[in-house]
Amino acid sequence: MIRVDFSVPTDFEDIPIGTDFETAWAELNRRCARLAGMEDLDQEKLGRMARALHQVSRFLKEAGVVYAADCLHLFRGEPSLGSLAVAVVDFPYGGDTSTAARGALRGVLQSRGPEWAGSVIDAPCGPAAVFTGGQSYTVSPGFSASGESVDVLTAQFHALIPIPESAGAEGRMCLVAFSTPNVSHWAECYAPLMASTLRSIRFMEDGQGEWTSARPC
Description:
This protein has 217 residues and is of the alpha+beta class. It contains four helices and ten strands. The chain has helices at 21-32, 43-62, 97-112, 186-200; strands spanning 2-8, 13-14, 65-75, 78-90, 117-123, 126-139, 150-162, 172-180, 202-205, 211-216. Helix 1 crosses helix 2 (43-62).
């Protein structure tokens, strides 16, 4: 079994993973109660948002995500949103973490296209294939301020880290994924935060099962 320890920025708040609808509903209401302008949302819209959170929570669990968080704060006077996920996935790589990181780099860059860039870096936890790029998502009318579908461009950061066999995980890889729709905030606000998170990751063998320990930084 593998344990993943890392630090996350203090502005980030945990997202429940694999939760039931009642927990998703309670979490949504807790967050809405703290945000100005959210008090007057009708129950139908809250219900749609809670169902979406429930579906996302179940998807994260099924995808192997062991930790997820998001943040909503002000950066230079502008609202700024970011989301972070850490997953542990099967990735048989033959025991050489450096070779695995280089192979992951080539494979991802070939599949993403020229708008993505990446490199292999030596992080404290081992070789890591790091990628940055942009990706567009479609926001459905039910969650759009205009009531119509909207395409949103996000800045993306991904890191793929082969977990060493010494940590008790044979043929597995850790994925760190971050995205923000505030593309202009990436370089100055979020890039340093993701660099700090990546430097903080540690793997170790744990007899209690696969889990993460996230600490504020």
